[in-house]
Please model this.
Amino acid sequence: MTRENRNYLHRLIYVYSLSLAAVALPLSEFLLSISQFILATNWLLEGNFKKKWDSAKTNKPLIVFLLLFFIHIIWLLNTNNFNYAFHDIRIKLPLFVLPFIIATTDALSKNELLKVLRYFNNAVLVSTFIMLALYFNCCGFEYTEVKSISIFISHIRFSLMLVFSIFIYLYFLAVGNGYFTNKYKKVLYVLITIWQVFFLFLLHARTGMVVFLLVLPIFLIWAANRTQRVSLKIASYMFAFFVIALPILFTIYVINSFYNTDKIDFNNLPKYTAHHNKYYNNPNLKILENGHYVWTNICYKELKEEWNKVSSIPFDSVDAKKQQIKYTIIRYLTSKGLTKDADGIKHLTPQDIKLIEQGETNYLAANKLSLYYLVYKIIWEIDVYKKTGDANHHSVTQRYEFLKTAFAIIKDNFWFGTGTGDVDDAFKKKYDELNTSLDKKHRLRAHNQLVTFFVTFGIIGFFISLIAIFYPYFITKTHQLFLANIFLFIIIFSFLNEDTLETQMGVTFFSFFYTIFVFGYKNKEL
Model:
């Protein structure tokens, strides 16, 4: 084989291993590992190590970015739990392997980059169709929460990939004719974009939805600035305004509805049911469901007798979400404005009974597409936390407890953090010290990547991490590539609500596209 043919073969393998990785990201951790193995093997067999080493050691942006990986090695000096530390370093390996290989390989051409992006888009699209089949219980698949249909990877990580895919399609549509050979392809891209936005909200992944709504106005303003048509410019600015304003107004509406409560006299609550059994009332615990008070007009005796007649799940057992079903029943009856007694149970429909058995505490859950209920649940969590201090099983208020604990750890380890391997141990110890209301299974880490940097590495390592991310990005002028900006916005916004770089798929998703945009594609225009 001639040198020219060998170089061509290595190039072909390189581009298709990147494409395989792009396909694997939303579909398979195993396939993702295979793609990185092929990428590394091809890089080794290609040879030219002196040229590659010279390229790497003179590439200052690459060296700075690699600090994001090597800071985990350096901070072993500040670590006691080496088992966890080495586990964490193994997860972070894509922060070293991908940038080193991609930065020391000839840059992708425009067509090669587009190929990788299209493979990624197609894989995300296929994933949505598979999940849609599961949503409709295809092949006997059963679930209690919609997020469970994301069977390949975490629904949060998938939602971020879905958001990026949506903006890739929007970008292609915005830049126009260079990407479409005919008008039918453009129509197809419009339909796919609409479908994927719909599926994002169907999945109910809050992180992805919020990130999408935060990035969309940025995209619209960019689109407005690049068009010469005044009508389109005005329409884009107006749409951006509504994207910002409508969620705020809708949230205010839900809050007002939530606190539109029953006007009742807590000093004169009924004492007996229609069947002359005694009611239980707790007027001090003013928990709400749809404006109705949960802990009033409860007769456990009648609830148990009537419920056991209509359901195969005993009253003293648990629902599909492992919640005590008697409390699910009480909240559900309250949500419908019914008394919690025999008469209340008799007013339940077969659909109501099925929803209760599935662990749903509010009749609004019957509409799986309800954005009102999605916002309502967040407000309910906050309201319960304010009134009881209990954040268990509530993802939003749990995050407040996570952050409160993280900042307490930071206070004790301000300069150098806990070290690479001691983060989990520090959280466990601090939860006990703070006497948190969280159960042990809910005592998780910060769920904020920036805070996690601070907890792990202290103020010094925190700034090193930020420099490692932003310095290469700007010094290589990657900020001139708008699609790269969109990706970085998605990642940074996700950092505020998730430990994005603490999971295999999250860190690989970040490292893969960041590295391609910053080190693997020299032409900063698409």
Q: What stands out?
A: The two ends are 34 Å apart (CA to CA).
